[in-house]
Amino acid sequence: MPFRRLAAALLAATTLVGSAEAETIRVAVGTQDTTINCATGGLLIRELKLLEKFLPRDGKYKDATYDIQWRNFTSGAPLTNEMVAGKLDFGAMADFPGSLNGAAFAKAGRKSLFLSVLSGSVRGSGNGIVVPTVSPVQSFADLKGKTISVPFASTAHGLLLRAVKAQGWDPERDVTIITQAPEVAGSALKANKIEAHADFVPFAELFPWRGIARKIYDGSQSDAPTFHGSLVDAAYAERYPEIVTAYLRAAIEADRLFAAEPEKYSELVERVTGIEAEVAYLFHGPLGLQTRDITWKPEYRQALKTSIETLTLLKKADGDLDVDRFVDDRFVRAAAAQAGLDYAARLGDYAQNPLRNADAATGKPITDVSRVAEIWVKGEDKVRPYASPEAALAALAALEKAGGTARVVYAQDRTSGIKLFAAQAWYVQDRERRLSAFLLKGDAETFAKAHGGEVIDFAAARAGEARLSAR
C-alpha cells in the first residue's frame, strides 16, 4: 500500500512538471503604431515576426507554446489601462505616459518596469508646435495671448509648459491651454479654428507635410530630453526573464534592420499606419529628428524625473515614483550582449544615426553634415544625399528637366542639426551663393546678420539654382 501511494505521488509530480514545461505562455504586447518612434518596439517586431525568432525554445521553455498577442493604441493612457488590468504584458510609449504607467501600477499595488529606450533626443526634438498655414505667427514668442491646444498629460504637454516658462509667461494668464487629441487638432488646424497646437511624434511633422500646418517650434529649442521606450509588468518579468530579454533582442534586431534600410522600412510604416514614408524617414533616416537608442543615458533618466515632476504639478501623479527603481536596464544589457553589442560604448555615444552614403553628385564622402540635403526621387529605392542644399537644388533642377519627380527634399538645420522638410525651411544665401537651412525665420535672420547673406525661402532658393543650372 505505501508503495502504491509513493508511485501515485511520483506520477502526480511527473504530471505537474510536464504541465509546467508544456504550458502556454502569453506574450501580449501593446503598440502605438502611429507613434512611429515606437516602431522598433512594436510595429516592426510584429510585421517581421521577430519575436518568434528570438523567444526561448530550450531549458524550461523546451515544450512551451507561445500565445503572441498584439494590441494597437493611439496613445499611452489606454495602453496603460490594459496593462494594469492584466490584459497586456509589454507596452511602448513616451516618457510622460510611461511615468503615468508606473504611477498607475503603483496605485494598483503592483509595479511596472521601464526596460529600454527605443528612440529619443537628448535635446528634445520630436515634440513640436505648429500653427495653421495662413497664420502670421513665426515663433513661439508670437503666441502670447493665444489659445494653444495639446493632448493633456502627454510629453508634448510637458514641452508646452516648459516653453511657456522659458518665455517668463504665466500659463494661467498669458496663454490659454486646452486639451485636444491630434486627430481632432488636424481638422481644427485645416479649418483655422485653433491658433496653435503642440503635439508628439509624428504630428508636428505630419501636419506640415500634409499642408495643413506650419511648424514654428521644435522640442530641441527647449533643450529638454525626451524619448520613447518599452515597459513590462514587473511580475511578468520576474516569472519570465528570458522572454523579456527575447523581446528586447527583437527590438535590437528591428533597430538594426531600420538602420540598414531606412527607406524600405519607412515604406513599411506607411503601409501599416498610413503615415507617409517621407515623414517616417524624417525621423528614422540618417541624421533624423530623433536617434534610435536602446541605452539609458542620464538625460533619459532625467526626462523621466522631469515628467514625474510635471505630472505631479498637473495633479496626474503623486510624485512618489522612484525613477532609479522604475528603470531596470538588466534585460536590455543582456539582450545587447546576446546581439554582440557593446552596451557601455553605446551608452556613451551621442551621435545621430550616421549618414554613410557618398555625395550623389560627386561620389565623394560627406564629412561635414551641417549643410547636408537629400532628395528622395520618385521611383527610386534609395534617398540621394548631397553635401549642400545648393548641390541638391541643382540636382533637383536637372532631375525635373529630364522629366523626373522628387517625392521630397530634406535639409539639415544649420543651428540645431535637426532634419527639415526643405520646402518649409528658411535659407541664408551667402556671397558665394552657398545655402544654409533653418527651421525658423528668426534663426536665419540672426545667422545672416552674424555671417552675412540674404534670407530667402525655398521657392527663391530653388528658382536661383534653376536659373544657374539653365545657363
Write the layout of secondary structure elements.
Elements: H1 2-21, E1 24-31, H2 43-47, H3 50-54, E2 65-72, H4 76-84, E3 90-94, H5 95-107, E4 112-121, E5 128-131, E6 147-150, H6 155-166, E7 176-179, H7 182-190, E8 196-199, H8 203-209, E9 214-218, E10 226-233, H9 234-239, H10 241-260, H11 262-273, H12 277-284, E11 291-292, H13 298-313, H14 323-326, H15 330-338, H16 343-347, E12 373-377, E13 384-386, H17 389-401, E14 406-412, E15 419-421, E16 426-429, E17 435-438, H18 441-451, E18 454-457, H19 458-470
Parallel strand pairs: 1-2, 1-3, 6-7, 6-8
Antiparallel strand pairs: 3-10, 4-10, 4-11, 5-8, 5-9, 12-13, 12-14, 14-15, 16-17, 16-18
Helix pairs in contact: 4-5, 5-13, 10-11, 10-15, 11-12, 17-19
Question: What does this protein structure show overall?
Answer:
The structure is a single chain. The chain is of the alpha+beta class and 471 residues long. Helix content is 42%, strand content 20%. The chain has helices spanning 2-21, 43-47, 50-54, 76-84, 95-107, 155-166, 182-190, 203-209, 234-239, 241-260, 262-273, 277-284, 298-313, 323-326, 330-338, 343-347, 389-401, 441-451, 458-470; strands at 24-31, 65-72, 90-94, 112-121, 128-131, 147-150, 176-179, 196-199, 214-218, 226-233, 291-292, 373-377, 384-386, 406-412, 419-421, 426-429, 435-438, 454-457. The strands form 4 sheets. Strands 2-1-3-10-4-11 form a 6-stranded mixed β-sheet, with helices on both faces. It has a 5-stranded mixed β-sheet with strand order 7-6-8-5-9. It has a 4-stranded antiparallel β-sheet with strand order 13-12-14-15, sandwiched between helices. Strand 12 and strand 13 form a beta hairpin. Helix 5 (95-107) packs across helix 13, helix 10 crosses helix 15 (330-338) and helix 11 crosses helix 12 (277-284).
